[in-house]
Amino acid sequence: MPGVDAAHDTYDRLISLLDTSRVDYELIDHEPEGTTDAVCALRGHPASEAAKCIVLRVKVDRRTTRNVLAVVPGDRRVDLDAIRALFAARYVGFSDAETAERLARAIPGTVLPFSFDPELELVADPEVVKQPRLYFNAARLDRSLCLSGSDYERVAKPRVEPIAAPVPG
Question: From residue 40, how far is each of 23, 49, 61, 88, 150 by CA, in Å?
């Protein structure tokens, strides 16, 4: 399980990547929080501008399982049927916490919309990359990052596919 050191490494790796890629970003310190609605309130923006990051287990067939980091707007949910269709999979479900933490190199509530592990495929909804301001926890519960969706797409290089669905009301 990643501890403070692993989270610190992930944070440092993200900042280094953004700096070397010449990305204009803003760091925002706040009370420790990992739930989307609560951290959006602390940062002072609508949930639609947040990147919600979910690690999924995608069973393509009996022998092939893929790990997918799905990134959707904070006011939406991951459409598991869309992911299933995208990968022509038999089954899609949420990854167990230990696997998610190992692949994302972060604890729940701090998972970045970036993948630093070749076993974790990055898929982002089009609504994420078109945000003028995109917010997410920066591998820490007490610090967030804001950058443009276009810079995010340029640097993270996600597969952009419609994978978000409305949250049931």
Answer: 22, 9, 38, 34, 20
